[in-house]
Amino acid sequence: MESGSNSNAARESIFQSIRSHLAASAALDVRENQIKHAPDAPLRPSQAVASEQDSASLVDLFKENLESVDGHCVVVGSELELVRALTDVIAQLQRTSLRARKIAISDSPEVERLVKQIGIDVDEIAVAPSATDVFGFDVGISRAQAAIAETGTLLLNSLRERHRLVSLVPPVHIAIIDASEIVGTLGEALAGLRQDEQVSPIVTLVTGPSRTADIELTLAIGVHGPQELYVIVNARR
What's the pTM? Predict the structure, then answer.
């Protein structure tokens, strides 16, 4: 009997704790509902910070955070500068063991047009090669549909562009993005996705080169994806 009484007392104590916490959260629930549904609700702190930042400061923050995870970021001011930057990156890679002789590109017409203007010889340029063929390429070039400044992350939307294999398989990934597509937070990037008429079944988030510490907790780069990531930001006005 004593054991049963102790059990009932413990259960009642748990229920009382739950009831008290639910009661305490009621005021917070009301406040959250007001924020979500009020037509002129004030900005949440992260949104307020982002709204105060102009495009230039978002680019600077994105560049800083991308480079902190071993990515490379080049900021240009025009399409001509973009093509020159693309040419320079590939030329530098060709002087390394990464070769950069075979280039796989996404099916973005803009990417194809830009790559055709690079002033350097390559062995092959292929648009969205198959899952089998893409493993034979040295560099993958694509656009990104958004970038997140606070983490240096790229967002790739497969509904807008066939770039998943191109961005994940070759040893080097070069991504092109406009400064206007850089947002402050992940929440803003996802909100942008929800504004589209269709939501992509596959959204890829890329933060720096591929890395893992699965093997004896030793950090290794490029095991499950590109070992180098370059992002060219076009800050044209």
Answer: 0.74
